[in-house]
Q: What sequence folds into this?
């Protein structure tokens, strides 16, 4: 056999193997990361997430957790997260609305912004934005510092009824937000007129945490995820949860078990500026649809005690409309609008 014949004999099987490998690659389904961008299979690049409250709050934790999961899983390229706090989130809302047509900007938001639009008489509303996705839902928790004299929720409720002026409650949202609505409805259910509640508003969970630990308020109400580390370390004690059922891993009763007929939960999602092209909107919606399927995001939910409450853009838009109506009714009933 000649050398050329020998070479052809060796190369033939190799070419066949390469053809098989290439065919397998072409027929294999794309990885999740490859789905997070345009229809050409490229990643979503240049995404920026606006957080409308201070670092450490729920919107901040949600945005930074989502950004890391997106980057790690390959749904997107690097994501920039920045804070623009003020007026219960409506400063950030105004900035988002003013960025009309920008399909590389999203805002982390939730129930708190719905209420802040009313309490701050914001010119910009969520109806002016482009709904992208609802992501999470979680219980609110009633917390006190470890050295608090209140050992259980009934002791706290008794003291609150006796002297509400000297039993201030802190929340990480302005009037109309979840950390405000929850204690107001809790007071109503406990037989305490909401107008007598001494509510102290903080711009996010970070500021609230410092005040609870520093004894500036008698107790705090916020989302479980915001205080999970402090609860686990023992520096904060949970007296009750606002969910309808006890929360696994949290040694605290529900409010209903404690004689207060209230079930309440908070949710968070993402909106974008108005005026997006159909392609730009679809690209953002697809990125978040891919995010919620990743193991990285499922781990985020588990670590923070969040429930998966994903809704895609159109359904989220309808939900936002119903939540707006619900919050307005509650605020009017409490005499706050």
A:
């Amino acid at each position: 056999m000649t050398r050329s014949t020998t070479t052809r004999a060796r190369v033939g099987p190799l070419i066949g193997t390469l053809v098989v490998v290439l065919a397998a690659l072409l027929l294999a389904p794309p990885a999740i990361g490859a789905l997070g961008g345009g229809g050409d299979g490229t990643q979503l690049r240049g995404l920026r997430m606006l957080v409308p409250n201070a670092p450490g709050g729920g919107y901040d934790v949600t945005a930074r957790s989502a950004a890391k999961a997106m980057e790690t899983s390959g749904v997107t390229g690097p994501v920039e997260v920045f804070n623009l706090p003020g007026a219960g989130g409506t400063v950030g809302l105004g900035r988002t609305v003013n960025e009309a047509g920008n399909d590389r900007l999203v805002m982390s938001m939730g129930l708190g912004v719905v209420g802040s639009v009313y309490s701050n008489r914001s010119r910009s509303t969520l109806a002016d934005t482009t709904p992208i996705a609802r992501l999470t839902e979680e219980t609110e928790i009633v917390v006190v510092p470890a050295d608090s004299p209140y050992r259980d929720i009934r002791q706290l409720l008794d003291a609150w009824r006796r002297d509400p002026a000297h039993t201030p409650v802190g929340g990480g949202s302005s009037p109309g937000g979840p950390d405000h609505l929850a204690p107001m409805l809790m007071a109503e259910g406990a037989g305490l007129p909401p107008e007598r509640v001494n509510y102290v508003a903080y711009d996010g969970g970070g500021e609230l945490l410092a005040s609870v630990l520093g004894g500036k308020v008698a107790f705090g109400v916020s989302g479980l995820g915001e205080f999970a580390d402090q609860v686990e370390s023992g520096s904060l004690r949970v007296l009750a949860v606002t969910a309808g059922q006890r929360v696994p891993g949290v040694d605290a009763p529900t409010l209903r078990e404690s004689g207060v007929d209230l079930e309440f939960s908070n949710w968070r999602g993402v909106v974008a500026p108005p005026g997006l092209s159909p392609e730009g909107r679809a690209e953002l919606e697809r990125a978040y649809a891919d995010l919620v399927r990743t193991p990285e995001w499922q781990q985020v939910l588990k670590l923070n005690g969040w429930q998966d409450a994903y809704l895609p853009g159109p359904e989220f838009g309808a939900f936002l409309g119903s939540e707006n109506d619900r919050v307005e009714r509650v605020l009017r009933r409490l005499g706050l609008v």
